[in-house]
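Write out the 3D structure for:
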Amino acid sequence: MTVWEHLIDHWQKDETVETSRKNSANRKSDRGGKGIYVYNLGACSMSFKEDQLIEANNGNPIDHLHLIKEAHTNKKTGQIQDPVIREVVELVETQKADFLASQPLFDDADSTGASTNLSRLKGGRLVGLARRASSCPASSSQVSYADPMILEQLQNKDERIGALEGQNTTILVELGDQKKTNAISFFV
């Protein structure tokens, strides 16, 4: 069967047609009168754009608000066209300003270093960011935050995996010994 024939079979399935119909309707949704989603990166993915911005920032992580603005700003008009994204950006900028106003002034710190990731939630969903496991590539020059509870759980799982691997090795050695004993007793 050729690839084309597989594609024909795939698109003739009721579940494929239903999924396609649902996804098409979602893309065309007016989101409660706010129009269809507007994306201004073209063929560039959000993750790729983030990587470009990090590279342009000498390998340093970039602020998610900057990424959202970059992805959703119309390059010709300089405006964020999508009203939902515009609302999220305005909300986060307001929260950032309130947060920074409540913090003591630092002589040697850059005030833009404060996180603008104060709220990315809108209606229980992340808005404006691609789903990505990490916001920046791993690098020894970057400091990342890790939840101590998660690190402890990972350490416990690593210890359990090590113990299970040890048990597995012991079992495999014992099985090998049994096979040798059985082979010898078979010929005796």
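Residues 146-188 form one domain.
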